[in-house]
Amino acid sequence: MKRFVQCMVVAVAVISSLYASAAQPPASGDQMPEMKLVVPAERQHRAYLGLSAGDFFEVQQVKADVVILEIMSMYCPFCQKEAPNLNELYRLIEGDPKLKGRIKLIGIGAGNSSYELKVFREKYQVPFPLTPDRDFQTHVTLGEVRTPYFIGVRIEKGAARVFYSKLGGFEDVGAFLEEILRLSGLK
User: Fold this and answer.
1) What sign has the CA pseudo-torsion 140, 129, 81, 95?
2) Where are the beta strands (DSSP E) in the chain?
3) Residue 14 falls within a domain, yes or no?
4) Which is more confident, 30 or 4?
5) Can you give the residue range of the structural domain that contains 66?
6) Which of 103, 112, 173, 174 could serve as 66's disulfide partner, Cβ 3.0–4.6 Å?
7) What is d(CA 13, CA 48) in angstroms, rounded to the nearest whole number?
């Protein structure tokens, strides 16, 4: 029995250390972690991001001053509820000549395949790119955050610096955009 208890203590210590060493979500001021995102198959989404054809891209390659990443899942009811707000955010940005081209949105589907994201895109009429993270590699890199999780990144001189990192959606689309503009330095 004593041997069993010792083994259990060791097992708990090992498991605890694994959780303690897990990646944390990027914080404001952090450099965006290196991660490879799948290049969208749709030509209009590649054009929107300023990417040429290829297999993968990194956030700092997006042709924009600011990139807003939503870590989401098509199965997440909160992400489904948030979809209309994100669509409205996209319309506000694209409808403003001072912001269009300067701020881009990307959804990262944690555990989702391209097919699953296509279903989500069609059901919720999502106009911006959604990239799959079927094997959860990006999700792990970003600290295995719950969904939806938003990360705002400022791109300067080929580097991507985090200025916003929060769990949960937003009720007021205009107020969220104002906060993004203020925190990113675009306003």
Assistant:
1) positive
2) 37-38, 56-57, 66-72, 103-110, 130-133, 149-156, 159-167
3) no
4) 30
5) 25-184
6) 103
7) 47
| Whether the Cβ atoms of residue 39 and residue 57 lie closer than 8 Å to each other | yes
Q: What value does the mean pLDDT of the chain take?
A: 90
**Which one-letter DSSP state was computed for residue 59?**
G
Sign of CA dihedral 132, 136, 137, 138: positive
Separation between Cα atoms, residue 186 and residue 89, nearest integer Å: 16
Whether the pLDDT of residue 132 is over 90: the answer is yes
Instruction: Report yes or no on 7 lying in a domain.
Output: no
Q: Does 178 reside within a domain?
A: yes
Peptide bond into 77 cis (omega under 30): no
47-90 pLDDT, tens digit per residue, is: 999 998 789 999 999 999 999 999 999 999 999 999 999 999 99
Q: Please check whether residue 142 lies inside any domain of the structure.
A: yes
Q: For residues 12 and 152, which has the higher predicted lDDT (pLDDT)? A: 152
Number of compact structural domains in the chain = 1
Rounded CA-CA distance 54/49 in Å is: 13
